[in-house]
Amino acid sequence: MKLMVNGEAHEVAATTLAELLAALDYEGDWLATAVNNDLVDKANRAEFQLSDGDRIEILSPMQGG
Amino acid sequence: MFDLLGTTLPSRLLLGTAQYPSPAILADAVKASGTSVVTVSLRREMAGGRAGEQFWSLVRSLGVRILPNTAGCHSVKEAVTTAKMAREVFGTNWIKLEVIGNHDTLQPDVFGLVEAARILCEDGFAVFPYTTDDLVVAERLLEAGCKVLMPWCAPIGSALGPVNIMALRSMRGHFPDVPLIVDAGLGRPSHAATVMELGFDAVLLNTAVARAADPVGMARAFGKAVEAGREAYSSGMLEPRDVAVPSTPTIGRAVFS
Q: Deepest of A1, A35, B149, B221, by most Cβ within 10 A of its Cβ?
């Protein structure tokens, strides 16, 4: 399945958002995720089914003004 | 002490966490400023990265309240989703709402701002909208559910200070009971003191401290200026007058002629 993750193209075997995070070595409770511009909260990542062409954003805390 | 949305804060200075020379200097500046609220953001994390974790760990160690922002968002949808992501990560319903409308001036898209504010307020957020000094927009934001307003006094990072005193004064006069925080454009402590003397409840700044030659010293200076400006406002200042008035009593003056 082809996905865009943080703006980069990826070809992955993962079918859920939780599997995708593990496959790409993302872990930690400081991460927030969105798929196709909508929040997918932590509790729903394991059951969230990904589809070909999905755009995933994985964000973490950063300095800000 | 300052009551902000039911939270009692010891300082009327809110400080940004970006652009400091090092994490250690950021931590020292926060302490020196006396601030009790810092702003933070969310950005893309690299695969296997720990940058976000390290920064978040540092911020938590400071023992201050967190005000996440939606900096860099140019649409309502981006801002709303970013706010929801911030609420999950930072564990607060406070959000500094930015919907940027112009790349050059970084001025807010006030139409999108009102729309995003309405959506987020209905979703339980305490929205701190980064807005202009326009009174009509301010009224719309209050109608949308905002309990606090954050007008700019000059473009973000410009260090110009209050460029339209009349507009700020007018805003204070129109909304006497709404917490008003000047956000963006402050360059030096005297600017902060000026807007505090006008009766603004607090100021939020970042670049003026972070990019100073000595950010820790500048943070301390801003902390003092905010305090001085507030105390001056509370103490009742003299109105300017066009004639000289002697300060030393004239009664009992010696006559030598």
A: B149
